[in-house]
Amino acid sequence: MSITGIQGQLLEVTVVGCNKLKDTEWISRQDPYVCVEYGSTKFRTRTCTDGGKNPTFQEKFVFTLIEGLRELNVVVWNSNTLTYDDFIGSGKVQLQKVISQGFDDTAWPLQTKTGRYAGEVRLIVHYSNAIKPGTSFTPSAPPYITPSIPQAPLYSTAPPAPAAPYLIPSPAAPYAPPAYPAPSPYSSYPPNSAGYPPSPYSAPPTAAYPPPPYPPTSAYPPPPYPPPPQSSSYYRPGPYPGMYPPPPY
Question: What does pTM read for this prediction?
């Protein structure tokens, strides 16, 4: 059933009650009642005598839906015996939710003729031919399946055969370090030269004669100082050319 195909379908409306209604009585308590209108169809609840501001009704009405009309008109009145009934407030009830979901339980606001708040009326609306989530004919998208990715071979050729396992050689006999003599508590250096081997050369023998005095005494007297000039064997003495004046002879 489509939401647009509501012509001739039945709609159940239950008037539960009113809350915080505008009080139109000065001395006694008011006697409210509710009128529900849909198209040319009108229903009226019983009068809740002395209902005051919070009357209760619990009355159900059935309307035949009209294609293109998706709202109800609700009017609340105060019943009087000797005079005309007093207008308390009115409001509009939208039917989109109940037609699409099948159920609506909402308190709708009421307004006076000047647009002021006049209380609220609670209605429970039921539509049995609503589209259920399980009976929807809307085609659903197929579930997404991750495409399988072809696996390429890791090698273009067959992998080489594994080599022979490496044999770990057996460990040889543990190496025994050479034994060293225990360190001496004394110094490794000899205290004197006696520890060295004797030299193959013997010390020179001591001279039998006493050493000569220093410096040795000469048998000749020392030469005079400065020494006398020696005549050169290369040049004869005086006169020399080029000297002026010539020395006298």
Answer: 0.52
